[in-house]
Every structure is written in C-alpha cells, then in structure tokens.
Design a protein that fits this description.
homodimer, four-stranded antiparallel beta sheet, four-stranded mixed beta sheet, 15 strands
C-alpha cells in the first residue's frame, strides 16, 4: 500500500483549484498527512549529526533510501494534532494554539509527505514542492478569505500584458495585497523572490503588495557523513533587502538559526516561524 | 575513444584559472572542439521539425540518445575555422571576420561539446554549462585584457562583506566595468540576471557596471515529436528592463527570433549575436 499517500495527493491535485481555501482541500490535505504517517511507521528513524546549534535532526530510512532531514522537535507523528487544527479552523478560532504549535503541525504535514516521496521516488523535487504550495496557499486563502491568482495584468502606456507571478491575494480596495512565494528551500535562487517583489513595487507602486514568502527549511544533509547543515546567506539577504526591494516577512516552518539574527540587524529583516502569520495577518499592512 | 573530449575538458578545467584570457586556454578549448567533432562524426544527424520561422535544426543521435537541437546554419563541423580565429586572435586582429562568422565559430565550439555530453551522459547540465562559462569568460578576458573575478567587496556604512557575483571585469579607473552572466539558456530564471544588475547598480552606482549577459540559445526539443521551439518571454524582459535594471546588451550565440524584435520596441532592449561584442566592446560605455 505504499502508493496510498500519492493517491491522496492526486485526489487533492484534482480538486485543488475549485476552492483553494475551502474545507474540501483541508480534508484532502489531512488524508495525505494520515497516509504519509502510516507509510513512515514502517521506516526506520536514523539520527543525524546536527551541525546546527540547538537543533536535532533525524532521517527516515527504508533500505537504501534516506529521506531529507526532519527536525526532531518540530515533527509530530500524530494525526490528532491536525484534526484539532482542522476543528479550530472550522470554528474560525485558533486562539487556543500558540504560533509555535501551529508551525509544528503544519511542518509535520509538509515534511511527512516530502519524506514519503524521498523514500519512494528518485530525485523528485517537483511533487514535494507542489504539495507544499498546495498546503501553504490553502492556508493563506483560508486565513485571508480570498483565493489567489498567479497572473496579473500590467497596463503601462502602450503595453498591455499579463505577468506570471507567485501567488497573489487581492483583498480589494484600500486593503493590502499579498505576494506569496512558496519554496521548500531557497539557497542562491532566493534573489528571485526579491526581484519579483521589485517588479510588483515598480509596476503597481511600493507598499501595495506585502511580500511574505513561506519557506519549509534550509537544511542540507550529507548522506555519507550523516551530517545536517543549514545553507544560509544572511549578508546577501541584507543587500537584497536594501537594494532590490523590501519583503515584509519571511516565514519558515523550520526557522534557520542564522536567519533569526536578521531580526536584530539594521535595517531589520523580519524572519518568523509561519504560525505567527495567523495572528498578525490582519495587521501586517500597518 | 569516446572519453577524449572529456579528457581535453578536464585538462582545460585544471589550468583554466591560471590565466583566464591566455593563449593556453584558447589552445585547450580548441582541443575540446576538435575531439568533440571527431566524436560527432560517428553520430547520425537527424533533422528536427523547426517551429521557428527561418531557422533549421537537427540533432545528433547515437543509439537511444538524442542531443540537444543544433542550428543547421550556425554549426560548422570544421576545425580549421577555429584555427583561423585562433591565428587572428594571436595577431590581435579580427578585422577579416564578420560578427556573424565569429558567432558561428564560437557557437560551433560550444554546441559540439554540449552535444557530446548529451550523447554520453544522463541529465548532465552542469558540464556543458561550465564549459560554456570557460569559453565565454576566456573570450571576454582576452578581448578586455583583464581577468575576471566572481566576488566583489561591499562596504556600506557598518557593513563589510563580499558578494558572490557572475563574472566581473574591472578595467580600472575611469573605464567601464563589465558584469557578465553566462548561461546556456535562461527561461524564467532570467530574472536573476536583472536582479544581480540591480544589486550592482544599487551598491556601486548606476552605470558603473555594463550588464552584458551571453546566452547560448533558448531552444527546446520535444524528443517524441522531433520538434524544436524557442522559449521566449519578451513581455517579461521588457518589464524587467523597465522596473529592475538596465542591461546594456544581451548576446546570443543563436539569437532567438522573438528577441530580435526587442531591438525595435521602446524602450529598446539590445539583443545581438555574440560576434558583435568583439567590435563594440571598446565603445559600449558611451
């Protein structure tokens, strides 16, 4: 039954676009999580040597295949957590959760399916990446109460064209619009996120789009040495934030130790765990 | 003897950094070209159905493996062309060549090694990409008379760090500096090129670095249908040129039909075949 999580994923994929923030997608995401956990019960947990201060990691193993690194503190192998979250979302009341609890639950959903794919496919980065897009864009759409688009019309004197974008949430007149890039990791490709923000600022005016990328993690595992590191480029981020565009928030499901320090430099770059989004979304434009 | 081009490539790789614009590298590049041509003599040429107006393409085939698309008009399977170029470079006099002749010669060197790798490796994009970087950065370094760096120091109030960059050629005081990204193709990743230019403009001042990316081609082959298309995003390029930064030239070895038209829009984006570089390098800053 090793294809059950993939079947749930295919079902999610089929219906996802109908109502991105809707309850049906939340149910389908829950199915993927439950079946991924079932699958991972048969995998061995292998501790990794973490070179990141204060963070412990393991990987799942089946035979020759080793999954990506899993943050031991962040990972919850318990479907009931998602069910509690699901019930709270249904009542539109997350007040009984802390930001860190929410981050752990959402991290667990994402990483369990990623690890399932790592253990059953070869070099498949696309499926985990697309699932992560589904998960995060669904949660944004639910929270903001509006479904996203991924194209935007550009009218500019003698030019009328549409620009493909990351997820864009248009909350209507006199309210902020959100620009949401979603990545499982960024490395040197991260400059694209700032560049897209720059284009939106340039075409529509600075401040109209709040750039709030959501990233899973920046870990990298050396499979031979069984070591985990985080690949971070904090000085480059500062240069991008000063010279390309300003991102409002950078949310992580597993916040890299190095990037936490960017909250303290000047000008600051605000890096937070994703759970905070649910409590600050309404006030981010202020 | 199917590993001979790779051996020549390894030899080039070993000595490349010693004097990037030097004659030894030109000789080593010639070896790679000659041995790649020898290898390709044993491959079949298979015509592709070109969906690009006015351009014909074929691919090399050995058994199951099909190479990338080769522009039939641009490709010269004759080592003597490179030898003539080499002799002219030695005398520092390219006046007997037209820009299009130079483009064809350099295209042929690049594409023959790329096709060799396509036919002998699986999914190896890195080796052709690195060889193309060697080829183009060598030619730039020879023409400009200075070797490139790929890091630059950023001093900014309380910040002192180095920024990794594409190839940077510093011609000294009161002369332009060149910012040279080198890519075998760009697609949607091209926004990085404009973003890096923006960072250089922001950190050092607009106009100090001339952005002159060199790109091999934008073809994409459908191996099943045997069709070739070019993937071009002209409207996005215009938006990037207006809102991120200004690139001075975009050079191609096989200029995409769609991008030629960007020379005629306003504001223009100057897209040319790479051979022009050798005749306009000295006047580009004007």
């Amino acid at each position: 039954m090793s294809d059950l999580p993939l079947k749930s994923y295919a079902a999610l994929q089929k219906t996802f676009g109908a109502d991105i923030g809707g309850a049906a997608n939340r149910k389908a995401i829950g199915d993927v999580y439950r079946r991924s956990l079932d699958f991972l019960k048969n995998a061995k947990r292998e501790n990794l040597r973490s070179l990141i201060p204060g963070k412990d990691y393991f990987a799942f193993r089946i035979g020759d295949k080793l999954s990506r690194a899993v943050n031991a503190t962040q990972f919850i192998a318990d479907e009931r957590q998602w069910k509690a979250f699901d019930a709270a979302v249904e009542k539109n009341d997350l007040s009984r959760f802390t930001p860190d609890q929410l981050t752990r639950i959402i991290y667990s959903v994402a990483i369990s399916f990623c690890c399932y794919i790592d253990l059953t496919k070869s070099r498949d980065q696309k499926t985990p990446g697309t699932f992560f897009e589904y998960l995060i864009s669904h949660l944004f759409a639910w929270k903001l109460g509006v479904n996203p688009t991924t194209r935007i019309q550009v009218l500019n004197l003698d030019m009328d064209t549409t620009l493909p974008t990351d997820f864009i949430f248009n909350l209507g007149k006199d309210r902020p619009k959100f620009h949401l890039p979603i990545k499982t990791s960024t490395r040197e490709r991260v400059i694209q996120v700032w560049a897209h923000q720059r284009v939106l600022d340039g075409v529509f005016g600075t401040g109209r789009f709040l750039g709030t990328p959501v990233i899973l993690a920046e870990t990298k595992t050396d499979a031979v040495k069984r070591e985990v590191i985080e690949i971070c480029l904090p000085d480059q981020w500062r240069i991008y934030q000063m010279h390309i565009a300003q991102l409002k928030r950078i949310y992580y499901l597993d916040v890299p130790a190095t990037y936490v320090k960017l909250n303290d430099v000047f000008p600051p770059i605000t890096v937070k765990s994703f759970g905070h989004f649910f409590f600050e979304a309404d006030t981010l434009s202020a």
